[in-house]
Amino acid sequence: MSARMSVYDPIAPYRDGDVQKYRTLADVKGKVVGFIDNTKPNFDYLIEDLAEVFKTRHGAAGTLIFKKRQASVPAGDAVMQELLDKCDLVITGSGD
Amino acid sequence: MVSTAFESLGRAQARGLAFPEMPLAIVPHPFGAIKREGIRELAIQCAENILHLVSPAAAPQGSAIAASQRAGLIELADDLDAVNLHFRQQRWTDGFPVVPPTRARVERMLRATRRDPAEVIGLVAPGYGAATVERIAINAVMAGCDPEYLPVLIAAVDAVTDPKFNLQGIQATTNPVAVWLIVNGPIAKQLGMNSGANCLGQGNWANATMGRALRLVLQNIGRAMPGEMDRATHGYPGKYSFCCAENEDDSPWEPLHVERGMRADQNAVTVVGAEGIVNMNTRSKIVDEVVRVFGQSMPRPAGNDYRTCGQPWVVLCPEYADILKGGGLSKAEAKRRLWEASKMPASMMAGIDFEQATHSRRAELGVVTRDTLLPACASPAELGILVAGGPGTHSAYVQSFGNTRSVTREIT
Asked: CA-CA distance, B350 to B353, in Å (whole number)?
């Protein structure tokens, strides 16, 4: 048998902890839908249309839209708290 | 929501955040190129998809994820080629061959620090892997580092995981961003680093392997694999290694770490989210001319600094630092003059970029109009100046990622 060598695996595993779950929704009737605009081209238009579609076709009670300062920075804590307090569903985007 | 080209990033990122089943609605790529009238139909379909994704029928059952803090050993044939073939197949390298991280080599590396191998220095975005001292040492061995380099790398990892550095943005962006390591203090000479001729080029073991080791940490611990979570459109060669020391001996000013509140005899590393180098070559020795032409070489209407308020750097060669100093400029005054001279008319930007600038820089500048002269960064103090390099008339402009701030850490 040829000689063997032990080497370390350089990869880090994904973090420990409980997998985060999300609340499910049967529908959005009477619910509030929140959006975080990531400032990428066209996402503001998609949000505008989605908000209208959720309200007119699916009965959403309202929508909340926040726009980030830039795509590559996180939304602020105050925005996240307001979304948490007021929304049943939050949608944001990543990529171009 | 993600576009098709970013689905792998979205899924990997969700896993890194311990939210592997995050519902993702997919839109065609390039989404930003779709005409306005096409968005409405997409929105109708997206709304249906989103409602299906969050419905009780589609919801997965969560469970715990266990992640060992200690690195695992693997058995391979005792052959350099075989080890490199395995690492290459696993995508554990930067594309170059590596030094096998054997137990003996990693133990030797770890003897260069008194820190516990299991200590977590930081969670490295975008995968949020735990950068333990041991894992940093493993990647340092792979890069070819001498053990004495390890404390620099530990401090560098601590620095890049500072939230103000915005490693998440830097690692996952389509922009070409490298992490530039700048070393200050007596340790630079002790390690044999190059701060002089060709200090940002090839040829110095410490510069090359430390920059490379940090890249391996970002890729292997942060899981920023090119084409997966590292979404760089092109990248650039600085992503292999980008590391130098400041030429403190030939600088007429206080070095960077002293400017940031440390003593000259302390050792420090600074990390910068850097997007490449632009040569600035003038033969003028007249201070006002030098400031003017350097300032006019910096504005970039399609760059990030002016749109987002960044933190660009000027790397002055010693000769030109001396010229500015000889003209009576302190380092702070040199920054102020360059900051003023590099302002760019907002009208130079494309319409959509101008609109973004009006939004992203409103808090800093108030109302931005086409006539506004945009500075590259919020204040003169934010403009980085480094004195480095050897003889010659060349200085360099290093634009930043934009949404990032350099971070300095003491090396202990």
From this structure: 5
